[in-house]
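Hi F.,

I've been meaning to write this up properly since the lab meeting, where we talked about keeping a consistent format for the predictions we share between groups. The idea is simple: the sequence comes first, exactly as it goes in, then the structure tokens exactly as they come out, then a line or two of notes. No screenshots and no reformatting. I'm using this chain as the first example so we have something concrete to point to.
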Amino acid sequence: MDLLSRDNPIKDICALMGVSRAGYYKWKKREPSPRDTRREEVIALVKQVHEEHPTHGYRWTAAYLRINMQVIISDNYAYKCYKYLCIKAETKHQVHYRPRKVKDRYPNLIFTTWETVDRPRQVIVSDMTAFKCWYMYFEVTFYFDVFTKEILSWKAAERRGSRNQYIDGLNDVIELLKGTEEPVVLHTDQGSVYASMAYNDLIKDTNIIRSMSRAGKPTDNPVNEALNGWIKEELYAEFHLERYWHKQDFINTIERYVKYYNTQRPCFAIGYDTPENYRKRYNKGELPRKQTFENRVLSPEPKFVQKRRQLADSKDTYKDVSTFEKEIPEKS
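Output, unedited:
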């Protein structure tokens, strides 16, 4: 038997809910509250940002809204919006390993101590990444500031294996560091251009110190590897790099992205701040000035191995102390 009658279902609904018919119609015709209106606006903004930047999650979206749209929204609220909209970050990271049988020309001055970098322009990393747009092929070389994650310079070349973009980018970095007396570590992989005499002769009379990853160890340059992956993914997914047919369109798109990356894009590694603003905050003294990089302890041992060894040592120490306490005779 149906719970609701066919003649007057509203009457039966009101009876089941324990409300009057007048109250039901009043609720049905009510105007949306300011809270309901704001909720719908925020949900619409979250959906808009996700459609424009689908490679990022709810925390990044919340930071983007706070920085660029001055919307007061917490990470938890953005998470609820994502759940309500049934959306999530669309990203895939693939790590490719290509071992190189090259002798280490310069020592590795970083290893696993990347978190000890404590000021801008202290450690700069560089690497090349390739882009394919229809029939065109480009190699783009980026120079990143490890502390702020800022793109200091970028150069593109159409010819496969070109070396000009490496050298032109390094000249930009040298120009940028003029007037800086503190030493700057330039860390790269063992690419043929990075190891060439022509490249390293440019920094002979500067305060730049060379550092290189070990052969076949891309994990020795995790900052560059991670940023290159994000940049390439965002350029294709959000800036639609594959749509352009001409060289100038490609260059203009990279220029737009670099400006967006440095001034608008929230970065997780620096607390969802933008690289440019993070550097300005440091220069103003708003960020603590640590002295951790000079006191770093270099070790080729991976971090997870170090943690396991430390954990095992601490357990052994605890066992030794417990055994020692048991051997102490109790006082009579």
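Notes:
The longest helix spans residues 303-327.
The chain has two domains: 9-85, 114-283.

If this format works for you, I'll send the rest the same way.

G.
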